[in-house]
Amino acid sequence: MNDHKKVMIRKLPTGVAGLDEILGGGLPEFSFNIIAGTPGGGKTTLAHQIMFANATPERPAIFFTVMGEPAVKMLLYQQQYSFFDVDKITNSIHFINLSQVILGKDLNGALEEIVKEVEALNPGIVVVDSFRAMSRKSQIPTSEMEMQGFIQQLAHQLTTWEATTFLIGQYSEKEVRDNPIFTVADGLFWLSQKVERNSIIRKLQIVKLRGQASVPGLHTFRITDAGLETFPRTYGLNIENEVNFGSERLRTGIAELDAMLGGGIPTGDSVIIAGPSGSGKSLFGSNFIAEGLRLGEPAVAAIFEERPKSYIKRAESLGMDFAGPVEKGLIRILYLRPLDLSVDETVHEIIHAVKSIGAKRLVIDSLAGLEMALAPGFRRDFRESLYRMIAALTRLGVTIVSTVEVQENFKEFSLTSYAISFLADDLIRFRYVSINGEMRKLMTVIKMRASRHSTELREYEITEKGIEVGKRLKGFSGLTSGIPATDSELKDLDN
Amino acid sequence: MSLTSVVIKNIGQQLIAYESANGSVGSQPFADVITIFGKLQKILSKLAGISGYNSLLRRSLMMGKTKAKSLEMIQIRSDGALELNVAHAANSHLLLEESAGDILLTQFLGLLVTFIGETLTVNLLRDVWPNVPFEKANVPSRDIG
Lengths: 495, 145
What we know:
Strand content of chain A: 25-35%
Oligomer: heterodimer
Helix content of chain A: 25-40%
Number of helices of chain B: 5
Largest sheet of chain A: 9 strands, mixed
Low-confidence stretches of chain B: 139-145
Mean pLDDT of chain B: 84
Shape of chain B: globular
Structural class of chain A: alpha/beta
Strand order of the largest sheet of chain A: 5-4-6-7-3-8-9-10-11
Distance between the termini of chain A: 84 Å
């Protein structure tokens, strides 16, 4: 109750998509931070984004360059990003080169120069790039202790001047763990990039942040024309969505199947459609979307195995018009197939699409395609990632249909290739059966969480009208093996 | 000649005209250009460092000399300041081309625009010469041959 007596830390925007959420609301004002990482990790770009997001003529930003990338070239490259506002340079953002000072003097000389400029310009943001070069390039050899002392003095000075400070340094992961310099900092941002086979995985970690709770762990990020874009593991879903799960049933567009499901799929459920190649899983997904459109429910399709044009065309050949609704914004078709995708990035894309059109239905076609699109490093944790993805998406209240390819054999009735059936509220299995020299198809509802459902094995066909569900296959035993025997055959065997 | 080149040339001429009109330059050859570069040095050394500024100026001078021989009369000091090589100028038989100063300034500003762009270059110049109306340096496209 005495919160009003405590000083509140104002939080500054970072200008980086997703980063404010990772930091727990933004950058703590007047904090003294270190941005460390491996070469090419985006350290300078991150600092620039923070400067451009906060600098004003009244509280400008100062960017001190020290022996690193030539300032003129840095400006050339940074201008390519969309956040770079040329009109802020000289007016709200000042670049000051300290190379000569460092070459000619010791660290105290550099400190004097920094303080002089800070006193003259009264900045809100100060960046030193790279502070590590200071110890390496100063004329007088600098010990670790001297460097720590320098950083401590710098922190005192800049905090007194009410500046939020960022020191940029190139470090390896091991150096960050062991370096006492980092104890001085209020915040430590670690940016890394790792090559895995032919993919690059970029990750950001807030190793420490005084004064507020940041989201722990490694968050993937990309560097695009807009600069850094982070994908927080919390997916922007900190606030629980008020969804009345299972309050209604969503029709699939296949009346007989809806009857098997007890009226349709409960709202907010995650459904897995498992089956072999060509069994109609994608068609089921399209049906689910088309039925939603008929009922005025917008849908998102995240596809990995075909391009949006052919997806739309295939639906059209079965009498489903997706082109019009796409134009009207009733369907968003996401084609996500960069080869170094992360699950977090995929989920962010999907969440953004679901929110932007208020989608009630989501089709992920297929989980095998998603796995192939991931960078190799992410494939190792695919099961865990899927768990987080489904959990995050269902919190949105959207009803999810995911297709899963099952390698069909005629010995067993496997449910999915990834042992992920526990992720699904509902599981529908398609399979081939060999009957009288014909390959026929059957479907069955394996499970529906907290809901009664049919346990029948129903034959179905794929026709020009779509999926047509027939009657229960009677007179056979061992249908789930794929090679059933007729009841009369079994009787003969018994005799 | 590209629009940018025309604009840069006009800016250079504006700067020379401004400094000459202000009477801040001496009567020595290249006095106007030396004054302008003295002012540019202050702001650009701060931005790019002395070596960064020096390298831009050195390259501009080398390129300028291929177009105006009389630029041989000027040299760059180690601190980045431009100066007249008095001995060389006295003994030289070179004719002082009227446009030599323009050429050097145009080369320099052209390099700067290549790296940091026209808008940022003009913003920096505005900081040094707040009274020069640089926007008038823009030339309508129909005037470009």
